[in-house]
Design a protein that fits this description.
By secondary structure, the chain is an all-alpha fold. The chain contains 21 helices and no strands.
């Protein structure tokens, strides 16, 4: 027992040391952090720190101002940007802690050391969280609050608790989701999923009333800011400003690109698909598969995303790099759509989560990093895994996920070198 505890603590210590080294070596694996995003974010933070009232009235950015306002207080306290950066990357450690607790609740039979190993590479080896932690952007803090809301939802679902405790878990879930949404408004869509889960598991009228009132009261400032003060601010600025609205709001682009991103992040779990269940699932979903194929064929002519719009996901970028066309991407997108249909498996909760992923990116640019590690974490914690083998998280798949994560990081390194 003592040896296992020592291994546990040693793994934690080594992981923290890699974070420290990354900070001092100015790690920037996704490239956007130091060269683009951080330069711009510093201006926003300084603007709020120097003249909050006037700057707030002229703020014109598609990100919520809350994150920059929070960091501006550290600036007003006299901290330079380097100490702010150092403090900020520790946010990922809070995410790590609550992710560990979430996995432990959902998978109680997995050894603690294996859970820690899994969580360390999901969170600390996430290219997005690492870069956004070192070069502050809204995503890490919003992810922290979102994972805490996940934690209270899981406690509601899996802990034997009193009615009062369940009400407390619901309120805390809504509260932390609200905090997350005030930093990254697109994450508010998870409120739909949580409401469905809470209402499905408990028909108590008091709980229904709490869900409605809590969501309404906590959303009032956001409603005012989004629809009155700074109308639809998330559409204020994009990478390509001269793009027509027919392209900017083309939902076919989002379906194709985001579906391919979902497949990329869940690709290791293809190894855990149960062939017998897949065959039965496929037969039972023929009535959905045929319309999906028809939709894909008709949608091909409406796909008009271009690399200069920003992002597109790894499969899209790879297709353009290797073939200078979208043909490989279209093939992978078709596989993605079939895979997603099979994973949904006619389960409402799976369907809601997929819709959330498709809708949480309203702007033109669609970057792969927006979904790292959100898709993987959501899949492990909340998806119904009926089409997969009974034990979806075993030692072998944890090792595969680790290798896959390292290859994901390597892809970013190679992209930076090209």
């Amino acid at each position: 027992m003592k040896k296992k505890l020592n291994n546990f603590n040693l793994l934690l210590l080594l992981s923290y040391l890699t974070l420290i080294l990354g900070f001092f070596f100015r790690e920037n694996i996704t490239t956007g952090g130091i060269n683009i995003d951080w330069v711009y974010h510093k201006k926003l933070i300084s603007g709020f720190a120097n003249d909050f009232q006037n700057y707030f009235s002229i703020y014109n950015n598609r990100h919520s101002p809350v994150f920059y306002i929070i960091l501006s207080y550290f600036k007003k306290l006299g901290l330079d940007f380097e100490p702010i950066r150092f403090l900020h990357f520790h946010v990922n450690l809070i995410t790590l802690f609550f992710t560990y607790k979430c996995i432990k609740i959902k998978y109680p039979d997995i050894k603690k050391l294996n859970i820690l190993f899994l969580v360390l590479f999901i969170i600390l080896l996430s290219p997005n969280l690492r870069t956004s932690g070192y070069w502050p952007s809204p995503y890490p803090l919003s992810m922290t609050f979102l994972v805490i809301s996940f934690y209270y939802c899981l406690r509601f679902l899996y802990e034997k608790s009193t009615e009062n405790d369940k009400i407390k878990f619901i309120f805390l879930n809504i509260f932390f989701l609200a905090l997350s949404s005030y930093i990254s408004p697109n994450l508010c869509l998870f409120g739909v999923y949580f409401a469905y889960v809470f209402l499905e598991k408990n028909k108590n009228k008091n709980i229904i009333l709490i869900i409605i009132l809590a969501n309404f009261l906590l959303s009032l400032p956001a409603i005012y800011y989004t629809f009155i003060y700074n109308k639809f601010f998330m559409f204020n600025l994009t990478v390509s400003e001269d793009v027509q609205d027919s392209i900017r709001f083309n939902f076919i682009n989002k379906i194709f690109i985001i579906s391919s991103i979902i497949l990329f992040h869940l690709l290791p779990f293809v190894l855990k698909l149960d062939s017998k269940k897949i065959i039965l699932n496929f037969k039972s979903q023929i009535k959905f598969i045929l319309p999906l194929i028809l939709f894909f064929i008709l949608a091909l002519n409406n796909f008009n995303f271009k690399p200069e719009y920003g992002g597109g996901g790894i499969f899209y970028q790879l297709s353009n790099f290797l073939t200078n066309s979208n043909y490989l991407f279209f093939a992978l997108t078709f596989i993605s759509l079939i895979f997603i249909l099979l994973v949904i498996n006619k389960k409402i909760n799976n369907f809601i989560l997929i819709i959330i992923f498709l809708m949480m990116n309203p702007q033109l640019s669609i970057y792969h990093r927006y979904y790292d590690p959100l898709i993987l974490l959501t899949f492990l914690l909340f998806f119904n895994h009926k089409v997969f083998k009974k034990k979806i998280l075993e030692n072998n798949i944890i090792i595969v996920l680790f290798i896959y994560t390292m290859l994901f990081n390597l892809l970013y390194v190679l992209k930076n070198l090209i």
